[in-house]
What we know:
By secondary structure, the protein is an alpha/beta fold. The protein is built from twelve helices and eight strands. The protein has helices spanning 3-15, 22-31, 42-57, 68-75, 91-99, 143-149, 162-174, 192-197, 213-226, 240-244, 253-256, 274-277; strands at 82-83, 128-129, 155-159, 181-185, 200-204, 233-237, 257-260, 281-285. The strands form three sheets. Strands 5-6-8-7 form a four-stranded mixed beta sheet. Strands 1-2 form a two-stranded parallel ribbon. It has a two-stranded parallel sheet with strand order 3-4. Strand 1, helix 5 and strand 2 (128-129) form a beta-alpha-beta unit. The longest helix is centred in the N-terminal third of the chain and has 16 residues, at 42-57. The radius of gyration is 22 Å and the shape is globular. 21% of the residues are buried.
Amino acid sequence: MELEAARRAVLAAVRGTCAADLPRLLHWMRNTNDFDELVVSNNDVVLKNIAEDLRNRLPIEAMFNSEHQAVQKIHQHPLPMIHVDAFLYDDDFVDSLCEEGKMSRSYCTECGSYKTASLAPENGSNIILRGADKESVPKYPTIIPGYLYSSASQLYGVEMNADFCQLQEMMVTKYQFIDRIKVVHADICTEASLLQKADVVVMNNVFEYFLDRQEQARAWEFIAFNVRKRGSLLVTVPSLKESLSKLQTNIQLNQWVEEMQLNYDVYMEKDVDREALEQIHLYRIL
Length: 286
């Protein structure tokens, strides 16, 4: 059925509804999730399959013991913390893990134990960190959605951790992304040529949990020096201003980049985390 015919059929069904039931029908149409499965693309299905594959290969916190700095950072957090990767575990999945007793959204303020009852809001706290939150440790490689949802001819993912390099390469090979994706096991500070040639650079919480402040400053100085192709784009989570605020660098943002305003309302999913979405910033290189 073509669009115009479908539109007429829907309107005819609405107009044919008895007056008493019409408000409930319209409310249902505005709020139902029943249509979601009709707009799921094959790319969305591929991503869900990749998430399942990764869950089967990673511990529940989605971290390897080889990530010494990140593990240490989480252990040093003043409040009990569980790292949860939002790509691997959406809110519904987290809820099911909590129901099975494999995870808890609460902790005891007296001893820090996760063995608490949920009916004690004064003693509870949400300690789940989602993948785009500013204190999370994101593992989900940006290059895979880049492959599925963009026409970029070549995508490079630079990863310092050998375990995650191996895991990403497994996914790239299994899902036949190898024609456009290359995983580079390296410190970004050794990849000047890659940065200089890039049209788009995406950086999602890349340093805070993996480098000390001095190393972070060195990495940002290197990036600011090499990401210089005029008109190229830089995407960061969180903003450059926030990332650099606690570091001592000589980077002059107003001489390097121009921030471009994003329309966050374009992302239409009902359950979107607006605060997390607004952590995404886009810059054009001057």
